[in-house]
Amino acid sequence: MIDESGMYHMASEALRGASPPRLASLPRATAAALEQLADTMLTAVRAGAGAIWVEHEHRVYTLVVRHVSIHLMQALQQAVGDCPQPSPIAMQVQGQRFAVACTGYPLLRVFVAVRTDEARTIHQRLLPRFARLAQSLLQASNSPVGLPSEDASQQAYRVIVESSLRRLGKLMQATGCMLLWFSSWNNSWHRFAVGNVPTWLHQQLWDAPSPGDGLEHWIQASQALIRRHGHHCIAEGMTVRDMLKGCVFLWRDKSKEGFGDEEAEWLRITVHMIASSLDVLETQTELLQRVYQDPLTGVFNRLYFEIAYRQILNNAQRHPRPVSLLMLDIDQFKRINDTFGHETGDLILQVTGQVLQQVRAGDVPARFGGDEFVVLLPDTDKHGARILAKRLQNSLKQAVEQLGLPFPVSITIGVATVTDGDPSLLLLADQDMYEKKHLATALPV
Known about the structure:
Elements: E1 8-9, E2 22-23, H1 28-44, E3 50-56, E4 59-66, H2 70-82, E5 89-93, E6 96-105, E7 108-115, H3 121-140, H4 151-171, E8 176-183, E9 188-195, H5 199-207, H6 215-228, E10 231-240, E11 243-253, H7 261-292, H8 302-318, E12 323-330, H9 333-340, H10 342-356, E13 364-369, E14 372-378, H11 382-403, E15 411-418, H12 425-442
Parallel strand pairs: 1-5, 2-4
Antiparallel strand pairs: 3-4, 3-7, 5-6, 6-7, 8-9, 8-11, 10-11, 12-14, 12-15, 13-14
Helix pairs in contact: 1-3, 4-7, 9-10, 10-11
């Protein structure tokens, strides 16, 4: 409900039984950038606490939390989801006041919130900007919310699109061609162009905000802009399964003839073929992600780990070099599940998966089963593996402290290294982990 001061209140009864917030699995660089953005936001508005989260395909994922407990975070996210007011808004949750702003489009909405005694002009002015910056960081990332690396798919997009645009532009004698496509599996807009793209058009196509759900209006505005600058322009929407997901523009100087009916028909056929190709690529990528990704934690699953394990050890046999493996087990995980519920246990697994996303490119973090995880480290000796293990333990401790859980969470990590591709690497790491667990339980309290 909304009181006379315009503050939105969330009834505590509505929060009972709500699930703990999900944590997004992000690449290390993206996570670090978002954390820095959160700190800058709090400093700019002189706030002591805040958070950034995202609603991705109707699921809410927490990105950054600063001095907000897990229960308050849960209440805040639910309150924002139920609030009918436009962004930015002021609201009161569990006796604390927040200013909240939102940006994005239906499938990807980014929220920023700061705790404040009153919503002032500075919040109205700055918070939407921070929300847009957070959205830009996510969309520029090679691994948006919860998804593994997309480098190969990005290359496939480029090959399909740029080659098609070049052939199309040459055939239709266009000065330049541009394609805009909304990728449903990573919720971001892809832009491609060939030929001559003037500065004023570049600003419209790249620097302006994404069209969101107003794509038809955006297409009309872009065509009008191109024609005002003395060019013929033709555009064709990219429709897949009755859904408008993008468009293709072609333009040429008015010193030449306008685009005729035959050219328009050729454009329609070509755009349909491009759209179908991109849709197939997305479907294949999504299927691969489902096959190789653990859906709860965002890291690879055991199937992918076993494939990578055999391949990396086989390479190490042919070209001897060190390969290390970390075997991780969450301490007292069954007790956490039994005492605090499986939803809390899932949250701990998500936190662990988020921490494991911070390893180097080329390392293979995977959920091995239950509360056990592994990290395969090619070209890494035992000293380097032990350093990483210590860093992961500290990172997990810090991540859990940010959530304000009423109990500590720790992990035991077994470390093993082979130099000749010995396939017993997994067994050695498993033995080391259980020896450390036995030693910990044997020590006097």
